[in-house]
């Protein structure tokens, strides 16, 4: 982090990545409310829905309904829709998403299980999704899953990831995000990944998406900010997990990141009390305690009663 960089933009992903692995089916109305609460907390960017096959990810079957309840009222906010293929991108455009997030995978076995395709197929598919986004006048972001490790193939080298990134840059995306899908990364890997990425391009934005499976999410996020990352994904309450990753646990919690960045003097533009209130509400919707550390311990110094 340079001395000039005293802020970071966080993208709220609880409505999509947070909910997709939950067994309790969340109503369309509650999904809309979660996005609304996120906007109230100060978010400008929310990954609201996924246009996955509803048979494989039933929690996201109402993506069009969620967008119908949001798009007409939030033209000034960025409602991101995740797409796994060109058909998903077409659905995102029709549903009036303001950005398409396309998923590429860095490891072969996970690519096959997640999208029933090879890594080469997914990289080639970037061109089709980019063309759809461009025709609709929308930015396309790319999430590169298993950037730091794969539950089936093991270690994923930074050289392999950078080779894929070089191909992805040809589609001129708005941003590329390195996703620690199984929460195996450690800070030095994050630092190296972003340094290598910036050596390839200084014109696009770089994003990181951390899971807290092994309690490294906050440390990795700090390392990413110190390395000059443009965006961080996070999930209110720390909910989340990939349906195709064994023993997947939640994303790094939004409120945990905001707490540590507030204490470091790094601006996020987000209201921590609203985030905590949303986390408590979401805990009630899901009927269980959420992983967020701040939700258990509270803000320090403690608020006056």
TrEMBL record:
GO MF assignments: hydroxymethylglutaryl-CoA lyase activity; metal ion binding
InterPro entries named in the record: Aldolase_TIM, HMGL, PYR_CT
One GO term (biological process): L-leucine catabolic process
Highest rank taxon of the organism: Bacteria
SUPFAM superfamilies found in the cross-reference section: Aldolase (SSF51569)
CDD domains xref list: DRE_TIM_HMGL
Keywords tagged on the record: Lyase, Metal-binding
Positions of the Pyruvate carboxyltransferase domain: 8-276
Keyword Metal-binding in record: yes
Family per record: Belongs to the HMG-CoA lyase family.
Name listed for the protein in its UniProt record: Hydroxymethylglutaryl-CoA lyase
Provenance organism: Phreatobacter cathodiphilus
